[in-house]
Amino acid sequence: MARFELKLPKMGESVAEATITNWLKEVGDKIEADEAVLEIATDKVDSEVPSEVSGILVEQLFGKDDLVQVGQTIAIIETEGGDAPAAAPVAEVSAPAEAVEIEKTIEAVKEEVSAPQDFSGSEKFLSPLVKNIAKEEGVSLTELDNIQGSGKDSRVTKDDILKYIGDRKAGIVQAPQVVEQAPKAAVEVPKPVQTIEPVVQKSQQAVPVSVNGGDEIIEMDRMRKLISGYMVASVQTSAHVQSFIEVDVTNIVKWRDKVKTAFEKREGEKLTFTPIMMEAVAKALKDFPGMNISVDGEYIIKKKNINLGMAAALPNGNLIVPVIKNADQLNLVGMAKAVNDLGNRAKAGKLKPDDTQGGTYTVTNVGTFGSVFGTPIINQPQVGILALGAIRKVPAVIETPEGDFIGIRQKMFLSHSYDHRVVDGALGGSFVKRVAEYLEAFDVDRDF
Can you say whether the dihedral through the CA atoms of 14, 337, 289, 425 is positive or negative? Predict the structure, then answer.
């Protein structure tokens, strides 16, 4: 008999940890190769972890709701014969035990926390996990802002805040209590933080929720809690402003009606309007690279690749944004295949964590639900998002060499939300106008 260590697999460049949401196999169960053993959740998607070998599950090293780092051993499978992959060194096996001790420490401190903290005044992007740990450990906003992050774009990770907490308990660092006691130190706290926090607290207390016997109380699921946190954080981070433009897409509608049957027969894919719109957005981003950026404090990061996020509604009412990587390098057929693949896997819950990472700009189709236009919230840390409105038949003035006349045209609205911290009206308006120009200049004689 041999013992095989099932580890949490790598799930993308920026995914370092996942939460166990459900064990599909219990200790003593027989497992076949490639059979799912447990379900996990990252901050974006849920997925399954399959076994690489056949055998018997003899040990679960983590429980439900435990947080596991990529590469950590999560279970032991006993296999027949000696053909199982070699076990990891003992030093690596000790990692789960350390993680369990850290989690126990966090749980022990929960009872000591009496008042929740508010981190809305922070200039940093803080993940819900980091905020929760900070609240549980009583870490103040000032302390959190002073922690040097080791994550992507210098973000504070779980390991960063746990190390700070451990150092503080050991006396290596001191909590800045002087800020509350010494008037001079209090003056040094930035005024925006002092003014914003009381307003937030008052607004929360001023809206009590009344519950009567006929009301139903439903707890948010994990994904809805994450979406809620992301949306609030985005509004508090970016100065949202919108530009709207109406587009005549009559040529696109006629062309799609003409070729959609032949397209599906040749490519085995349905041709929707979304890939056509995505193609125009990718071209416009190449023309205006100032929209393909991110903000990190006082620095602007110009992204080399154009990775288009595609907001997709899930059957349970939640929202997810899979990403089309290097969208500017795809032709219409490639774009259609990418759109359909990501959309189908999103609805089926089969997206991988890496499918939602690395987006540089996002497109959302509010017209799917009949909306003429909308004011979407930016998907951080991006600086822009485009909403596609419903395509409608409307009377319009048509200019011809013989004069103007009224005709029926297919039109839609493009709604562009952008971050006014780094994108002014000239750039934001010019970008969405360029998208409109590409759509209106669509060649009805083109092949697919």
Answer: negative
What does pTM read for this prediction?
0.64
Catalytic residue among 424, 443, 445, 447: 424
416 is catalytic: no
CA-nearest of 198, 178, 197 to 188 is: 178
Which of the pair, 331 or 15, is modelled with greater confidence? 331
Distances (CA, A) of 37 to 19, 50, 68, 76, 233: 14, 5, 15, 11, 34
273 and 392 in contact (C-beta within 8 Å)?
no
Is 240 a residue of the active site? no
- Of 29, 420, 443, 445, the active-site residue reads 420
d(CA 6, CA 28): 15
> Count of alpha carbons within 13 Å of 243, Cβ hemisphere only?
21
Give 313's pLDDT tier (boundaries 50, 70, 90).
confident
pLDDT tens digit sequence for 3-24: 899 998 876 655 678 888 889 9
Q: Which residues pair with 87 in a beta bridge?
A: none
pLDDT in tens, 400-412: 899 999 999 999 9
Q: How many residues does the chain have?
A: 448
Under 8 Å between Cβ of 346 and 313: no
